Amino acid sequence: MESIRSLLEAKAELTHGSNSTRAIVLSTRVRLARNLAQYPFPEWAKESQRREILASCLEAVKALPQMNEGNEFLVENLSDLEKQILMERHLISREMMQSKKSAGVVISGDQSCAIMLNEEDHLRIQIVRSGYKLKEIWKSINAIDNAIEATIDYAFVPELGYLTACPTNVGTGMRASAMLHLPGLVLANQMEKVVRAVNKLGIAVRGLFGEGSDASGSIFQISNQQTLGESEEEILKRLISVLDSIIEQEENARQKILETDPTKFFDKIGRAYGILSHGHLLSSAEVMNLLSLMRLAVDLSLLPEENRKLIDRALIESQPGHVQFAAHEKIDPAKRDKFRARYLREHFAGLPALNFEDLMN
Amino acid sequence: MLKGKMGKSLKCEVCHEAATVHLTQIIDNHIQKVDLCEKCAKEKGVTDPSGFSLADLLAKPHIFTEASHQKLVCDRCGFSPSDFKRLGHLGCPDCYGNFREIIDPILSNMHMGTEHRGKVPSRAIQQVSLRERMDGMKQNLEQAIEAERYEDAARYRDEIKQLGEDTKTKSDN
Predict the structure, then answer these.
(1) Which residue in B has a C-alpha nearest to residue A233's C-alpha?
(2) What is the separation of C-alpha A344 from the centre of its chain, rounded to a whole number of angstroms?
(3) Measured between alpha carbons, how far is A268 from A334 in angstroms, rounded to an integer?
(4) Burial of B30 per CB tally in 10 Å (0-12, 13-18, 19+)
(5) Which of B54, B107, B112 is opposite residue A202, by nearest beta carbon?
(6) B3 versus A287: which is more confidently predicted?
(7) Cβ-proximal residues to B160 (8 Å cutoff; 6+ apart), any chain
(8) 61-120 of B, contacting A, C-beta below 8 A
(9) How do residues A205-236 score in pLDDT, each as one tens digit?
């Protein structure tokens, strides 16, 4: 457990990096799928080959300047709880939690870069930043990819690009995504319409934890579906234009609710504030929805901007794995709800009262 | 890898309109290609605009007719089309070349195009151009031998040897 503790206590991009510019975008991420030319893909490789793959990837990844202060974790050395915490922090995938031996992850000191080894592909390079920074991320991840490529012979053919275990990733091997907070569109019952329109443009909408997860807290992951037939820049351009249009629609939806039925809005936010600062039993799903409304309160200037960080951090630290870790023991869900409520009461007790005055006049 | 498809436009086998959907079936160990226009493909139920996932594609039995009974395997890793159907992904990088008859139609249904237009690793550019040069020289050598131009053949042979050594020192460095 000691290994992961330092990671939880450090200032991380997702728990401490929040900023107000375009607050609808919680975070953005780019990941690249890469494979070594001379080995079978991880799932089909023999255990001895998986060990060799892991060793050569680890060597290349640990040599990166970005990983100077990094941590490496092998799946076989992690407890279930530790795996869950890494997953809740978006540093490993759900698939990796069930991985066979000889798989692992190297995480940079600020936790913005995580490179998974022997997941579905030999290398899954990921950079996450809080806020809307797709182009900057692409620049950084491209540099990391170049540095790894200098020592590793990637599986690549000119016609099909980077070869990946699953044909859905072949070509650029790039999945770019943004985590969007869309309470306005959810309250206005417009999300279904948005999802349908966006899917037609080759863009996928998923819940907070990717494939198959629900969109609790009105948080959605929006990403490109296709990886072949377009350059990385073209994919990003297409994704950004869709994101910009969703952001605009969210802003319009919020504006419309404020004009037509502000009391409904204010009532929800006020109740969320009351429950978070005075509740005694809170499930993680309920907390997600309440924190989502508190984030909206900051967007609407009902709470000072400086409180956004606390809310974004609570979104991660209220997850089941994080609560158990903070409680120093494996506790059952009922006890977890009590523990979680206490954590939130402590953190929300110091918040200023909601300032409805400006919006009600 | 995908050449041939780009060249002449194929006609739908049902209505003879321009075909945009290209399917490959394996029946009795023979690879059979079917070209359809979008309308006929829809009528035959081979495209599903709402379902985009590979799982949906793989679930359609006619794409993989008798796949589990035929002998096609990847000569490098032993992976077979029935493994692909079961696991949803491939065995090794060579599977793309070895199963292209099966994978190409899947890719064209799944992606914005069928050819890579993105980043090319600088190492790969070097290797590909070296490989192309080597292939070209080997072809010259064969032609020279066939035409009994033995002086030329000897020169090509020396050049090939030299290029091989250059490549080796480069990769050793």
Answers:
(1) B118
(2) 21
(3) 25
(4) exposed
(5) B112
(6) A287
(7) B134, B137, B138, B141
(8) 77, 79, 83, 87-93, 96-97, 103, 106-107, 110-120
(9) 987 766 555 668 899 999 999 999 999 999 99
